[in-house]
């Protein structure tokens, strides 16, 4: 080797490995995925909550329909008693009973729990001061449930007057109108006006007052919103029949739904539409009145003397053009579905459905019974041996189940149908007719003869024993 070169020995143990770049912290890039997963979990939970809420709403969608009763979970027994003196009437609203009756120159209105009879709230409403005729009755009070638009809060409308509205007063009677929240009893709106007869049509308050001019009487019909604002006024004039020697009169009534208003008085009648325009006029010899049925169907009610002239009976018949003779079908429960259809029992028997606007029959079920339940476009009925669910628009059989007996009444809690026979309430699922439990009524003091003793019936969303000697009601459940 040359002078400038020298030998060296490599020490491989001292050799440093090549330095690697520092590893990146994976946490900096992982958080978006964790956040996304959390959001997905929250969304799924929220979605499931919405689905659960919708399912619960679907299952309970009929529970607040007027006429739907509290569900039975055992053989019915007495729960509480409502004495006759405690009220003059009640109305089913918001899952409870709003009770009303005259008290101390006014009215007492209260909300009762259907299960216990306990009062959640109670209010007193004074009647307006007014001179009462000597033959006038005590203070009058009437409450009715307004049909609120979907999503709106429920409301109860009560009218309180110094005398009963059964007393005909020229110009009407000074009346306090209260619109109450049925959940709290708080007054939402109030006003005073003269009233002779009134009705609720959806969320409108309809009133009518008479004014006599010689041999004619003018009736003024007014529609107001729940805040008292006047929507329209219509004046009707007709001749007043001469008073009968026996004093019998068909009286006066005002009825309404969301699209129709019917006034009947002095042997005359008028059907108005939702704007107040007259669409049909009726008149008689003074011994007839008219009433409003489903879909604007008009029913004529005639007073007929008995053979010995000692009393009068009422005969009803349909008075709408295009609908043949028959009787209005009694609906124990009606949720307002298929509002354009009317259901009648024909003179030849059975039940028929009519499109009132077009004046034509849609279907007929020859064997159906007169007591019915209508929910979500399905008509539930029974024959002597069968329980039926019929499509209300087509008459098609949705389901059919043998019952083996003729029932006394039909009820529903919004989930099942209760078919009453002697000693029992048999149940059938509304959805498909599947038979459920049979509840015994043998523990209730029911009479063998329903005309002379206590009987089971539905009243404002509860089952009650009615027919007591004192006029009271025993709530069962």
TrEMBL record:
Region listing for Disordered, in residue ranges: 1-27
Record-given protein name: PQQ-binding-like beta-propeller repeat protein
Record-annotated Pyrrolo-quinoline quinone repeat domain positions: 349-469
Domain of life: Bacteria
